[in-house]
Amino acid sequence: MWLRNKLIEDVHATVDEIFYLDWSAAQRFNEKRDKDQPLVFSGWYWALGAQEGGPFKSKSSAYRDAWYRLVLRRAPPSLHRGRKRAAHLKLVRSA
After folding, report:
1. Is the backbone peptide bond immediately before 76 cis, with ω within 30 degrees of 0?
2. Tens of pLDDT along 36-73?
3. How far is CA 59 from the centre of its chain?
C-alpha cells in the first residue's frame, strides 16, 4: 500500500520505532514468558515509550495505525460493518 510522505514523516516524528519481530524472536519470548502473560506474535509493531501497537501483517498497516492513534489521536476507521449496517445493506440490495 502506498502511503503519503507526510504521513510517514509524521509517524517518524512521533514514534520511537517501527520494527518487525520475526517468528524466531517471538518464539523465544513465548518460551520465557510467565503463564499469566499474553503470547507475543510475529509481525510489524510500532513503539512509543511503554505503548506498543501490533502485530500487523504489513509495514504500511503499522504506519497507518500509528498515524491514527498517535498523530491524530483517534481510533483508526474500521473496515468491519456492524450487524445492523450489514442487515440494512442486505435489505437495500434485495429491494
Report:
1. no
2. 999 999 999 999 999 999 999 999 999 999 999 999 99
3. 9
